[in-house]
Amino acid sequence: MEEKKIIIRPQNAFRFRTAELLEYREMIYFFAWRDTKIRYRHVLLGIIWAIVQPLFMALVFTGILHTGLKVPTGDTPVFLYFLSGIIVWNFFSQSVIFSTTSMLANAHIIRKVYFPRLAVPLAAIFTKLIDFVIDLIFFTVVALVYKFIFNHNINISGVWLALLLAFPVLAIFTTSVSIFLSGLNVRFRDVRNFIPYFIQIMFFLTPVIYTTRAGNYPLLKTILELNPLNFCIEIFRSNITAETFQLITIPWATVVLLIFSYLAAIYTFRKMEDNFADMI
Fold it and tell me: Which of 2, 72, 188, 264 has the greatest CB tally within 10 Å of its CB?
């Protein structure tokens, strides 16, 4: 009987390994469904909470930053201006926070069962994606109120087209940062203490409460525009009241940063993945 030779080669650390993730897709569904079920156990309260947070933040920013400090918002209704930035920011920040601790939270499963460890932070991001969709529906409802009750020129179709262009950038950047930090948090437990500071720094580097399009400092403006979240928020806001679709070009430096963050995140996670069960 002829012997079969099995050759085991090392995996490329830069590969996302989509085929393997698809093979274990039930694990991603399981983690995402479990966390979603816990959050939305009482469906109405879960939906209300998903809306209340951006609602109150937008109200506070409207009252303090615009009414008090006269932060300019152009032709865009003030509430929609801040709400659009908050929705994008919340998806990024909550995904990063939730996914960073997801590996340790599922340590009991990781120790016992083999599956692609990448499924854990991805499932955490999918869970926050539900909140993101709810917030976008809420934004659309508020925009329709402004359009038909307050007679503002709101371009609903332009907003959703802008979101379709912005979401891939938002998803890649959010996933990259989440994967990178979730892997580091397993190896270095102090990373979770760094996350609040990282989120605060990123908040001020992201145009949630301001715009980079009207800056008087070219160098600072260039640095802020490197942030991929800047593109997502600016193209979102630019089309709220635009009569025709306003296409904003993403800088090449931002594209390079986006690709680098993805490769760095995948490489770091894959290099540590085999030892996760021991380190946890």
Answer: 264
Structure tokens at 240: 């709220």
Q: Which residues contact residue 68 at a Cβ distance below 8 angstroms, ignoring those fewer than 6 apart?
A: none
Taking the C-alpha atoms of residue 201 and residue 1, their distance in angstroms, rounded to an integer, is 65
Cα separation, 224 vs 239, in Å, equals 21
The b-or-e profile of 218-238 (16+ CB within 10 A means b, else e) is eeeeeebbebbbbbbbbbbbb
275 burial via Cβ count (<10 Å: 0-12, 13-18, 19+): exposed
Per-residue pLDDT of the chain (280 residues; tens, 9 = 90+): 556 554 444 455 556 677 778 888 888 888 888 888 877 776 677 788 889 999 999 999 998 887 777 888 888 999 999 999 999 999 999 999 999 999 888 888 888 888 888 999 999 999 999 999 999 999 999 999 999 999 999 999 999 999 999 999 999 999 999 999 999 998 888 888 999 999 999 999 999 998 876 566 777 888 888 999 999 999 999 999 988 899 888 999 999 999 999 999 999 998 888 777 777 7
Cα–Cα distance, 279 to 272 (Å, whole number): 9
pTM of the full structure = 0.90
CA distance 259 to 270: 17
197-206 LR contacts (CB < 8 Å, sep 24+): 198/96, 199/93, 199/96, 199/97, 202/92, 202/93, 202/227, 202/229, 203/89, 203/93, 206/85, 206/89, 206/92, 206/230, 206/233
Question: Which DSSP symbol is given to 39?
Answer: H
